[in-house]
Each structure stands twice: as C-alpha cells, then as structure tokens.
Design a protein that fits this description.
single chain, alpha/beta, Rossmann fold, protease, Class_I_gatase-like
Amino acid sequence: MAAKILIVTGDAAESLEVLYPYQRLREEGYDVHIAAPARKTLQFVVHDFEHGFDTYTEKPGYTWPADLAFSEVDPGQYVALVVPGGRAPEYLRNDPELRKVLKSFFDADKPVAQICHGPLLTAAVGGLAGRRVTAYPALELDMQAAGATFQDAEAVVDGTLVSSRAWPDHSGWMREFLTVLRAKAPVT
C-alpha cells in the first residue's frame, strides 16, 4: 500500500497550487487525499498579474472534489502534508478541526510543504516559530510576526518544512519537498 499524503484546502485555493502537487506526488507513487471543511466539490481560483494592477487578480479556476472533511482526517494515516495557497488559508486558519490536524503534523515532525499564503495556516498553530521560511512576498511581515525568518527565495527548506513563494516556483518547491519525502517517508 502506498504512503499517503494529505492536502488541506478549501474554496478559493489557487488551482495550480493544489493540482500541481496533487499530480506530481501521485506520479511519484504516493496516495494523495484532499481534505476540506466538508466533502464537496471545491471551487479553486486562478491568480495572475494584469498590467497596471498593483497586486494579483483572481479569476474562477478548476473545481475538484474533496476526498474527506477535516473532521474525518486521521493524521496518523499520513506521512506528509501539503498546504496550498490562494485565499483559502485566510479563512481556513479559523477552523479548529484543521488546526488540530496541522498541529499533529508539526508535533510528529512529519514533512510539510507550504506555498504562497499557505503559511498563514501553519502560523496559526505555531508551526513557524524559529524557522526559516518563504511565502508570497506580501506575507513577509506575517511570517516575521509568526516568529519565522523570511527569505525571498524559490524554495526554503528548514528541517522537514519546505516552503515556496507561489506557483511559478513549483519545480523548485516540489524538487526540495521530494528530497525530504524520499528521506523521511519513501514510497513503499
């Protein structure tokens, strides 16, 4: 039986930041599950830049079914966690069931990959204190407030935590995460 990896997300997650790791990790032989506040079809979004805008724009993206609700997750069944960005982390960090799941991964020192606004979730459970991370650059102050040292880089590895800025950095992010996974939780 293949090792399982959990992706936690919700509506308004960045399409590429959910689906790229989902497909890439499956390609490696992992069994990947998507958890959300409820079992339902999620509506993802696409963030991109338009000439003349000071920040990214948001457009409707793909839809995708959640395999299970946060309340159904048994963290002990999973070897690693992926935390995508988009707007979803902004409201998901208030979900007590999700915070329990996230905390269990950090308490067990399991591999965690986070990208873009995903670190807002890991910050909510104290998972960034004393760590080096990257995130979407506009979150630099949030990362510092969470006790992390922010680095503006494609991917930052701090122990079992692998972070990245946004979807343009996917290849570097997944390359580093797979290095951690192969050492800590290889495909069986």
